[in-house]
Amino acid sequence: MTVRIEREGHVATVVHSRPEARNAMDPESAEALVRAFAELDADPDTRAIVFWGEGGAFCAGWDLKYAQAFTDPVRFQHEIVAGLAFPASGASPRGPMGPSRLEMSKPLIAAIEGPAVAGGMELALWCDVRVMAEDAYFGVYCRRWGIPLIDGGTVRLPRLVGQGRALEIVMTGRKVEAEEALRIGLCEKLVPKGDARRAAESLAHEIVRFPQGAMLADRASVIAGHGLPVREALMREWNRGVHTIAAEGAAGAGRFATGKGRGGDFSDI
Question: Which tens digits make up the pLDDT trace of 129-183?
Fold first, then answer.
């Protein structure tokens, strides 16, 4: 098994384990990752998910050993174009790298050690938050082989770092080291080498201890509001948020009134 799920309380970690290939993606792993993330998104006991590549690499992109389908016109049309194209129904098939087209309803944190390049970078961009080891790095390394970004990289990268910077990174295919990634907003947290999984899981546990309805409503509003006119985004924020106030807000205010959280101490809320 190249993909497994490990759990601790309400936090689940999806582990991709092909260390001999620096966790480059093969068809079996892509399918297994889709199944794992879909399972966790539907699991009511899972509140946050960490995505980690075992063995010192997040993901080195698509395993080019399986790219022979690109050179056979019949296989290319059947396996790549027809198999992964968006159908007229509007449903989202799996991405070439696996889960990159899933719309997750729960917080998703990438724990990045070593390379997250080409399609591996796209998988990291798919996550809500990226925790990077100090020696980890991104890069559109598929630029060297004439392979475009087709797992969301051209969509998500400019939303994180801006169009001009995204274009420079995409067109040059250069290495983006962790320190630069933090500076330009391509990752949210930098940790010592070997500590990315622990730090990502710690962040996940911090998130899951809060009342979930309000947190999930805010998360959904941030994601769905991107690119909308301000008035429409504000209306959607209101419609999502107001329904959670009666369910969670009143109870939370009651806890505060009894002394919880006073003086900025949120260790017991």
Answer: 999 999 999 999 999 988 899 999 999 999 999 999 999 999 999 999 999 999 9
Interatomic CA distance for residues 112 and 51, integer angstroms? 8
Instruction: Encode pLDDT of 43-58 as tens digits.
Output: 999 999 999 999 999 9
